[in-house]
Q: What sequence folds into this?
C-alpha cells in the first residue's frame, strides 16, 4: 500500500521554500489527495501539480498557481480530476479540447459594431451619393450600435432587433424602416463572412412583419419640421442678422425652395444674374433632370452681394475648401432656435410636430404658402420644388412662359419673407 503524504496546513504550505541545493524545480507532497504536489522554482515561484495515471500513462496535471489557487482549492481540483479519470475522461485532453473550442468561438465571434464597420467598408464604395453613405452610417451609429454594438452577431435575436426598432417605429417610421433594412444587410454580410448562421433576425417577411405594424399603416412619410407660415417673416429677419456663408446659403435656400445640396453645391457658372435665372444641371438634382430656378430680385441682390473667391467656382465655399456641409446650415438654424429659447420665446417650431424647424422644412413652408394663401396652381409649386409629377404637366410648366409665371410666384414668396435690405454680411475668406 502506497505511503500517504503528511497533510500539510495552509500555513505550512505558505512557508515552503526551494532548498537551493539544485537549479531544478522541486516538488513537495502536501497530502489530502494522493499525488497532489506543490512545485517550487529556484526563484520560489509556486504552482500545483497532480501526479497520477491516466490509463497506462503517467501524467502531471497543472492545477494553477499558488497563492491564486489556495490549498483547499487545489485539493478540490485534484479530486475533480481524479473523478474524471475514473469516468474515463482524460483531464488534459479535455482541457485542450475546451481551449481549442474557445479559440474557435472567439475567431468566429464578431461584435456588431465591428461588423458594421466591415460591412460598410465593403458596401459604401457602391453608393453614388455621399449623403446616402452618411445616412447609412449615421442611422446605424445613432440607433443600432448603442443597443447591439457590444453583442456578438451570432447572438443577436429577433428580440434584440426589436429593442432597436420599437422605440422609433411609431414616431420615426421611415427612419426605422430603413434602419431595419440596414441592420439586415449587416447581419447578412456577417452570415456570408462566416460569423453567424441561421435566419436573419432583421428580416421583414415572415419575421418582423408578424411583430410590427406595416410602415404604411403606422404613419405617413416623415415630414421635416418646418417654420410656421406666420413665423416665416420673423425667421427670415433673424437669419439676415447673421453673418457667414452658412447664413447666406440658408437665405438663398429659403428664397428659392431648393434642396440643401443644390444650394451648397451651387456654382457661379450655373447662375445668370442679368436674366435672374439659375440652371441646376441634371447631375446635381435628385431626380436627375435639369432644374431652372427663376430668381426673385431679393435672391439676385443676395447673390450680387456675395464675395467671389479667386479660383473657386462655388457660390458658398467652405472655409477649408470644398462646399459647405449640410451640418453648417442645420447648425445655423439650431443656433437661431437656441437664441429664441434664451430670450424665453418658443422659437421656430413646426406647427404640427412642435419640433424645431430644420433647413429642409423650409420647402414645406413654401409649399404650404402656395397651397393655402395663393391661387398659384399646385403643379407650378411642385415644379418649383423639383418634385416628380406627371410628364404632361411637367412638360407644360417647363416651357419658357411658365418659368416666368414661376418667377412671379418666387417674387411673391420673397415678399412674404420680407425686405432684404437689412440682410447680414459675409466675412470674406482669406
A:
Amino acid at each position: 500500500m502506497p505511503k500517504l503524504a503528511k497533510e500539510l496546513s495552509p500555513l505550512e504550505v505558505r512557508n515552503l521554500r526551494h532548498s537551493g541545493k539544485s537549479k531544478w524545480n522541486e516538488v513537495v507532497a502536501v497530502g489530502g489527495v494522493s499525488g497532489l504536489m506543490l512545485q517550487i522554482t529556484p526563484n520560489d515561484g509556486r504552482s500545483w501539480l497532480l501526479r497520477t495515471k491516466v490509463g497506462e500513462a503517467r501524467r502531471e496535471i497543472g492545477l494553477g498557481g499558488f497563492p491564486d489557487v489556495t490549498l483547499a482549492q487545489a485539493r478540490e481540483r485534484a479530486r475533480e480530476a481524479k473523478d474524471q479519470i475514473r469516468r474515463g475522461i482524460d483531464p488534459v485532453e479535455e482541457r485542450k479540447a475546451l481551449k481549442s473550442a474557445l479559440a474557435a468561438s472567439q475567431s468566429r465571434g464578431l461584435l456588431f459594431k465591428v461588423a458594421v464597420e466591415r460591412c460598410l467598408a465593403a458596401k459604401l464604395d457602391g453608393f453614388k451619393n455621399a449623403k446616402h453613405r452618411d445616412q447609412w452610417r449615421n442611422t446605424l451609429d445613432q440607433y443600432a450600435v448603442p443597443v447591439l454594438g457590444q453583442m456578438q452577431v451570432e447572438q443577436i435575436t429577433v428580440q434584440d432587433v426589436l429593442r432597436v426598432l420599437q422605440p422609433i417605429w411609431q414616431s420615426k417610421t421611415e427612419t426605422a424602416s430603413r434602419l431595419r433594412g440596414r441592420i439586415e444587410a449587416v447581419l447578412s454580410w456577417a452570415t456570408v463572412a462566416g460569423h453567424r448562421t441561421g435566419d436573419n433576425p432583421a428580416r421583414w417577411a415572415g419575421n418582423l412583419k408578424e411583430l410590427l405594424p406595416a410602415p404604411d399603416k403606422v404613419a405617413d412619410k416623415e415630414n421635416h419640421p418646418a417654420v410656421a407660415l406666420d413665423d416665416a417673416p420673423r425667421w427670415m429677419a433673424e437669419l439676415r442678422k447673421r453673418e457667414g456663408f452658412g447664413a447666406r446659403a440658408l437665405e438663398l435656400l429659403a428664397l428659392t425652395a431648393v434642396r440643401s445640396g443644390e444650394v451648397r453645391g451651387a456654382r457661379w457658372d450655373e447662375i445668370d444674374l442679368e436674366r435672374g435665372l439659375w440652371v441646376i444641371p441634371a447631375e446635381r438634382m435628385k431626380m436627375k433632370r435639369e432644374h431652372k430656378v427663376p430668381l426673385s430680385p431679393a435672391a439676385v441682390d443676395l447673390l450680387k452681394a456675395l464675395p467671389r473667391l479667386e479660383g473657386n467656382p462655388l457660390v458658398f465655399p467652405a472655409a477649408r475648401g470644398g462646399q459647405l456641409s449640410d451640418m453648417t446650415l442645420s447648425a445655423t438654424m439650431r443656433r437661431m432656435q437656441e437664441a429664441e429659447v434664451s430670450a424665453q420665446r418658443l422659437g421656430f417650431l413646426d406647427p404640427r410636430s412642435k419640433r424645431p424647424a430644420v433647413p429642409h422644412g423650409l420647402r414645406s413652408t413654401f409649399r404650404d404658402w402656395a397651397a393655402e394663401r395663393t391661387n398659384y396652381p399646385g403643379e407650378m409649386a411642385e415644379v418649383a420644388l423639383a418634385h416628380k409629377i406627371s410628364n404632361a404637366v411637367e412638360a407644360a410648366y417647363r416651357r419658357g412662359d411658365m418659368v416666368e409665371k414661376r418667377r412671379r410666384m418666387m417674387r411673391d414668396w420673397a415678399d412674404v419673407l420680407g425686405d432684404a435690405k437689412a440682410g447680414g454680411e459675409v466675412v470674406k475668406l482669406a
